[in-house]
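Quick one - first record:
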Amino acid sequence: MNAVISPNSVANPMINEHQDPSFAELNLSKQYPTPPLESVTSFAALKGRIRHHYELASEYYYSLWGEHLHHGYFLHPADTKERAQTRLIELLLHRARLKKGSNVLDVGCGMGGTSRYLAKHHGCNVTGVTISGKQVEMAVRLTMDEAGVDVTNNVAGDPMKLAAGSARFIELDAEELGQHFPEPGTIDCVWISEAMSHLPDKKLFFQNAARLLTTNGKLVIADWFKAEDLTLAQFEADIKPIEGRFQQCSLKSPPQLADSCKTGCFSLLSAPKRNTHNSGKKSASKYFPKVWISARMSPRPALWAFAFSQGRDGIAFLQAFLAMRRGYANGAFRYAVMVFQKPVKD
């Protein structure tokens, strides 16, 4: 049986204005012209745009979605987004066979939701890294609130105790892990959720992760991907708008990323597990009665106004969510989780 990895943004492939009362509100996007695709002159410029976006938008995103900015694993029609999001973490824990009390590096940690969950519910000692100083500030504040400690007593980067585990947060470019963590073999798990697609130099990231991991250490990946074997027309219609407007590097298919990781420093522990599409065997849409992008984000006039106030990148970023919604619906855009392991040296 194919399991369904449900982004809480996945739309029903059959959705239309008669079936979804929020559909008409999506036309709000037409009030704002879609900015043309803008090339990025360097990886540094791309990272600067990503950092700038999250510096501006993170507080607003928290008001919309809470502490978890990642997708959810929906199994039941009544699932809330919060339950689906924590279930995705639990799925990754299960597939990674991660031991309680492990040392975890949470790359692209956002506001620290996953880091706190791993610390509180799995006893892990977690270091969360994000390119955004604003997100570090928010992660520390939320963690201190949960721990019941005065945030003014925290020194940047200090671990904060949560149940049997701990969490700390650092502002860091994910491709600079090698410089910041000089001691090899000290991490049991590198966890990266919906941040891999932002990284220009994935080979460097894999090398740094392998150096930091203990023998048999785990690399856990959850991210969005393009489907395999897309035609040029499908790519131009459904993937290019996401790459160009969502601060993404070139999207890979799940097998492409798995192959590049395996040919580098890792062996495959848990094969890519993907959301299915309405292909005749099992329709993923039955698991997704709630449409995250259309119902929780795109229709909101305040959000479009916020994006408009941020200029070209704000509108482009939000327009990309509509492209994601369309891509999920027609199968061109996918979500997958996979786990790799650092093998024992011969």
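second record:
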Amino acid sequence: MASSLRTIRPIVARFVGDSPRRSMSSSPKLGAAAEVKRLGVVGAGQMVYIAYASAFSEHGNMLTRGGQGLGIALVAVQKAQIPVTLVDSSQASLDKGLKFADKLLEKDVSKSRLTREEADKARSLLKPTTSLSALSNADFIIEAVPEIPSLKASIFSELAKIAPPHAILATNTSSISITKIAASTTPDGNPTSLDVASRVISTHFMNPVPVQKGVEIIGGLQTSQATLETAIGFCKRLGKIPSQSMDSPGFLANRILMPYINEAILCLETGVGTKEDIDNIMKNGTNVPMGPLQLADFIGIDTCLAIMEVLHKEMGDDKYRPAVLLRKMVDAGWLGKKCGKGFYEY
């Protein structure tokens, strides 16, 4: 199947993939990255991800808690210094997220990474709301809600009606097809319309966002070249280093990372090594900041299983079959750091 995909992709790119770009030639030119003056983030109040920033940077023992949306918003107000409209369905979640943002900014001031004036200015640029319609004047919108296809499709369907005609609509998905998400923006009965779909793209930020430099840029079949260039440029404004990927299952990061984690679980499952030996050899032998089993705990065991299932289903290759132990741990409710027990106890 993999060889078939390699054969088909160049044909698709030649006869189909170029079509959206040609159709955009007569459309108004999208604003350059420097012209992105207002950012919208959907899902910024989600306080669901936990990771130790100290494992990736010099930031000491800071514990980063919060959805990626909050991290994206904080980076934008500090690096690009533009107003960010934070949208979440729950006011309580927004309040909780902003309270955590205040703590992070205070910590940066105490560590002399920001002046008091810089922290106050950054905080003033965060505009929370529970109304998606508040994004009607945004130049660039990033959706960062959980990996639920129907939820993302619903949000993009609404954004297609709300966002201005020049706005880039980006998703932070780590596994869902960008082509499918873009299709949710097309009018009923007219799937060939590219008015909105050509402006849909993925900007997949790495966690924790304020620390990790990498971001994956993934275009769907409908995505225009102008959208791609604007997204890359804007991510650079945020101080990130973009890498481009095809709209293929797992993209680049998870296509490489998740089988690596799954293989480590298989090694534990079949008795090749203990969890400590597996993690220690990878940390001390390949210079990664944490071993694969500990990393799985911090990502979430259920998230690892979900991505492996997508890879297995979409690729049709047994090398992506989730480890039996991975499934059993999800069945047991041992989901990692977020619940206090995974491969390790917390």
